[in-house]
Amino acid sequence: MKYEAQARAALKQGDLNSAIAAARAVIAADPANPDGYFLLGMAAVEADQVAQALPLLQNAVDRGPKAEHLAQLARLLILVRRDGEAADAARQAMALAPPDALTCDTIGCVLARLGDHEASVAPFLQAVAAEPDNREFRYNLAAACGFTGRTADARAHYETLLKGEPTNGRAHYALAILSRQTAASNHVPRLEKALGMASNPDDALRIRYALAKELEDLGDAAASFTHLAAANARQKQILGYDFRQDAAIFDAIEALFDRGGAGLNRGTGDADGRPIFVVGMPRTGTTLVDRILSSHRDVEAAGELQAMPIAVKRLAGTRSRVVIDPETIMASGSADPAAIEAAYLERASHHRSGRTARFTDKLPANFLYIGHIVRALPNARIVCLRRNPMDTIWSNYKNLFASQSAYYAYSYDVMDIARYYARFDRLMAMWDRLWPGRVLQLSYEGLVADQEGQTRRLLDHCGLDWDDACLSFHRNEAAVATPSAAQVRRPINADAVGRWKAHADALEPARLWLQSQDIAVD
Q1: How many CA atoms within 13 Å lie on the side-chain side of 310?
Q2: Which residue windows are coiled coil (predicted)?
Q3: How many CA atoms lie within 13 A of 517 on its CB side?
């Protein structure tokens, strides 16, 4: 116990050499003691040596599973994208009744990363009960409550965070998007005060996004755009984004499939028809369609899976550190479609309950992978959402996406989004030319105007019988972890149609440019 205590104290102080020495002393004193291997593994984690840490934590678990050890093993397995093993380890840890708050929070984070937000609520609740003043634990619980429709609980937890930290940008932004703001109930004065107080640039950034969202809700388009422009300009500068990065990806996809030879364009995988891919530009109705489909008795929502991008990346065999780049795309042309299918389905299986015959994969950026999907899963169904180009540009510009995402770096500049939309439009035309009718291109505006007619068209394309529940998608109780969470818990409506017009002057350069590219914008 003496050496274990020394190792833990050294880890807490960041003294890795002392931690390693003490952990080795634990192992030397008792090779069967799992704690020595666990502490040695945690020292490797702190040194960013995940590959070395994994077998050490596995050795600890093999010597007698403990909740703390399993939870940390699950966290590392998520990092190396071994989702199935991570899920097993996290659930084993939970079954062992974890005694400490950090272990509970870690389990919750793993389950959330796996998309099982409902299951994450219980460990997050335990973590907050044990350490109510831990802001990170409470934020995680608040987010889980928001994703699972526990809106009042989420709001209460965010308000508790703001009482202790008035400039917490994450809490301010989460509260802003939790529901639609009104003249009688909004946070604009508090947000303006918080923006003036914020010393942390990341907090200020998120407060600006929160202000932009609430001001738009209140009809103050000019002030909303002013905050967005400042926030987005900063984000683009931080990322160092240049549209040529995405243009090169589109060029590579077109080179591979449009000029890669007829053999590449034939579906050669097996006949698995379980997946339904819902793709498109983000913020164009993909979450709405996913909710409609997953309300069907034979369909469950698996979430925004990285399964196809990762399958393609691994089988392409490229060494770059990003999931998609021109080199990976070109190398993927020689990958075995059956191997892509197997890798995709194996990874997707960890995000499914297995209670239904079909499942949706709602990663919007899978429109980049339609060629791979058709080759590897020729019986899978694909639905691409299409929305008015100007509403698409506005909805992308106003939302704060995951800052480290490989897919949405274009979204911080109006003209970058317009250029990206044009390439998206061109790519979808290519897929339709190569595989006519293979992808259902579904109009968001058409769905809003004719819910039942377009829902019938959607279900028919997906090979699904009619189910009245699809018209009552807003009653679907499954978790939603996208900015559309509040909207899809309301009946279908036209509130978002034509919203770009409130910002017509600011968006005019993008509209004129799209017109010059022969893209209809009205």
Answers
A1: 17
A2: none
A3: 19
- Ordered DSSP codes for 424-438: HHHHHHHHHHHSTTS
User: Helix or strand or coil: residue 295?
Assistant: coil
The rounded distance, in Å, linking the Cα atoms of 59 and 167 is 43
Q: Give ∠ CA 235-407-363 in degrees, rounded to 5.
A: 130
SS3 of residue 358 by DSSP: strand
Q: pLDDT value at position 521?
A: 86
**For the structural domain made of 244-516, what CATH number should be given?**
3.40.50.300
Written as one string, the DSSP assignment of 144-212 is HHHHTT-HHHHHHHHHHHHHH-TT-HHHHHHHHHHS---SSS--HHHHHHHHHH--SHHHHHHHHHHHH
Alpha-carbon distance 461 to 507, whole Å?
Answer: 35
Backbone angles phi, psi at 520, to 5 degrees: -70, 135
What's residue 407's pLDDT? 80
Read off φ and ψ for residue 75, nearest 5 degrees.
-60, -40
* CA separation for the pair 469, 472 (Å, rounded): 5
Q: How many whole angstroms separate alpha carbon 177 and alpha carbon 174?
A: 5
Q: Where does the pLDDT of residue 400 fall: very low under 50, low under 70, confident under 90, or very high at 90 and above?
A: confident
Residue 492 confidence (pLDDT): 80
Cβ(361)–Cβ(390) under 8 Å?
A: no
Better-predicted residue by pLDDT, 264 or 435? 435
CB atoms within 10 A of CB 356: 15
Q: How many CB atoms lie within 10 A of CB 327?
A: 15
Q: Which tokens belong to 35?
A: 């704690």
Helix (H) or strand (E) holding 520: none
Instruction: With a cut of 90, say whether residue 264 has pLDDT above it.
Output: no
What's the whole-model pTM score? 0.88
Interatomic CA distance for residues 109 and 105, integer angstroms: 6
| Structure tokens belonging to residue 67 | 């909740």
CB neighbours (10 Å) of residue 501?
A: 12
- Edge-to-edge strand ranges of the sheet holding 358-361: 299-301, 358-361, 275-280, 381-386, 439-443
Question: For residue 222, is pLDDT > 70?
Answer: yes
pLDDT, tens digit, 9 for 90 and up, residues 368-393: 999 999 999 999 999 999 999 999 99
